[in-house]
Amino acid sequence: MTIRRPAAKRQPDERVRAQRCLDMKLQGNTWTAIAEAEGYADRSGPQRAVERLLDRVESARVADYREVEAARLDALQAMHWKAALTGDLKSAEFVLKVSAQRTKLLGLAVPEKLIVTQQEMPSDEDFATIATAMMREMSLTPPPTIDRSSTPTAPTDTDMSTWIRVSDTNDDGTN
User: Fold this and answer.
1) What secondary structure, in 3-state letters, does the chain show?
2) How far apart are CA 143 and CA 163, in angstroms?
3) What is the spatial distance between Cα 67 and Cα 94, in angstroms, rounded to a whole number?
4) Burial class (CB within 10 angstroms; exposed 0-12, middle 13-18, buried 19+) of 150
5) What are the b/e assignments for 41-72, b being 16+ CB within 10 Å?
6) What pLDDT was estimated at residue 28?
7) Domain ranges across the chain
8) pLDDT at 173
9) Gyration radius of the chain's alpha carbons
10) Distance from first CA to last CA of the chain, Å, rounded?
11) pTM over 0.85
12) Residue 131 has what pLDDT?
C-alpha cells in the first residue's frame, strides 16, 4: 500500500528560490549542497524546483543551464567514447546513459507518430443487409432450454434464459 503525502503548499517566493537553485547548479554545486543551502529536506527538492522552472521556461538563465549541462555531458561522453567504440561494455553503457540524459535535457525525445485512418462506413442499405444476415444467423441457433419449474428471476446480462429467438415472421405468423 502506497501512502501519499499531501502536496506541499507552494510558497510565494518559490520561483525566486528555484532561480537561486538554478544559479547554484550552474556554479557547479551538487543537489545535496543546494538542498542544504536552501533549506530543502533532501536533494530531490531543489532538483524538482529547477525542473519546474525549466518547464515554465520563464528564466533567461534556463538556456544557459541547458548549455552548461549539455557541455558537461559532452565532456563525460568524450572521456568514454573511444573505449565504448572498442568494445568496453561499461563505457558503452555509460555513453548510452549520458546520451539518454542529454535527450531528456534537450527535449529531443519525440513521441511515436500515430496514424489514424478513418474506416469507410457502410451505407445504410449495406448496414441493414449485414444486420439482417446476422439476425437470421442468430435465429438458426436453437434457444437454450428453460427450466420453468423454478421461480422466475429478473434477467441479468449473463442470464442466457433471456435470449430471444429472432424469426422472419410477424406476431400473426405471416412473413
Assistant:
1) CCCCCCCCCCCCCHHHHHHHHHHHHHCCCCHHHHHHHHCCCCCHHHHHHHHHHHHHCCCCHHHHHHHHHHHHHHHHHHHHHHHHHCCCHHHHHHHHHHHHHHHHHHCCCCCCCCCCCCCCCCCHHHHHHHHHHHHHHHHCCCCCCCCCCCCCCCCCCCCHHHCCCCCCCCCCCCC
2) 7
3) 20
4) exposed
5) eeeebbbebbeebbeeeebebbeebeeebeee
6) 87
7) 10-59
8) 56
9) 33
10) 63
11) no
12) 87
Is the pLDDT assigned to residue 11 strictly greater than 90? no
> Which amino acid is located at 122 in the chain?
P
CA angle 33, 78, 63 (to 5 degrees): 55
Q: Which three cell numbers stand for residue 151?
A: 421461480
23-62 pLDDT per residue, tens: 898 888 999 999 999 999 999 999 999 888 877 765 567 7
Cell, residue 16: 525566486
Predicted confidence at residue 76, as pLDDT, reads 92
Q: How far is CA 149 from CA 4, 113, 137, 160, in A?
A: 55, 60, 30, 16
